[in-house]
Amino acid sequence: MEDKDKAIEIMKAAMEKEKKMQEASEETKKDSMETETPDQVETDAAADNSETVSDEIVTEDIAEEEAEMEEADSEDADDIKQKKNKFFKNSKSKELIAKDQKIGELTDRVMRTIAEFDNFRKRSEKEKSQMFDMGAKNVIEKLLPIIDNFERGLGAISEEEKESAFAKGIELIYKQLITALEEIGVKPIDAVGKEFDPNLHNAVMHGEDETLGANIVSDEFQKGYLYHDIVVRHSMVKVVN
Asked: What's the CA gap between 196 and 56, in Å, rounded?
């Protein structure tokens, strides 16, 4: 735009200078008209016509140059607009990409947090269950000697005394205790006549018995118990070789 303004100013100055020269020429002609011959008048008229045509050509050239400069400015404006649109479009694309990446990172973080919390919950429930089982196992271990004494006492009662009220009362209490333990998941381990299992049985004696096969439990000295498939106490047994 600055080059265009300068060119217009130069053209205006040239036109003003040309106009002044024409005015000076006209004054000179007026002064010399009295002495001019008809031939000279015709010559001067031809010169004036030539100058008028020259002025028209110059004006047309200036108009063409101005049109070209306006067209160039229009093209520059369109180019600048396209560049701006491209710049903003690229900037918007970069912002969307950055937002998508941020959303992906936050989503991944949330999923990891949920997975960690779920693992923590499962681990806590498992530890809680294990702690409960350990506590129950300790209580059951303390009750087992009482059950052993009940069984020894009932085994020592003679046939005549079993019909007494005292013996029947002791037996009822024993059965009630066994029922309560079964309800919470405690059950005795089968030993006699079963194949020896080191996970369930504790062999304290070995013997010979032709009626039983090898590695079979023939006698049980102390009853073992399970709590939800957890061995509370191993059975103390005698195993046939």
From this structure: 130
The DSSP secondary structure of 176-210, one letter per residue, reads HHHHHHHHTTEEEPP-TTSBP-TTTEEEEEEE--T
Number of residues in the chain: 241
Q: pTM of this prediction?
A: 0.49
CATH architecture type of domain 187-241: Roll (2.30)
Which tokens sit at 13?
A: 């100055």
pLDDT beneath 50: ranges in the chain: 34-54, 58
Characterise 42 by phi-psi region: left (phi > 0), alpha (psi -120 to 50), beta (else): alpha
Q: What is the pLDDT of residues 44-82, one digit of tens each?
A: 444 444 444 445 554 555 566 566 666 655 656 666 667
Domain ranges (residues) in the chain: 1-20+59-142, 187-241
Q: Reduce the DSSP state of residue 217 to 3 states and report it.
A: strand
- Contact (CB, 8 A) for 214 and 240: yes
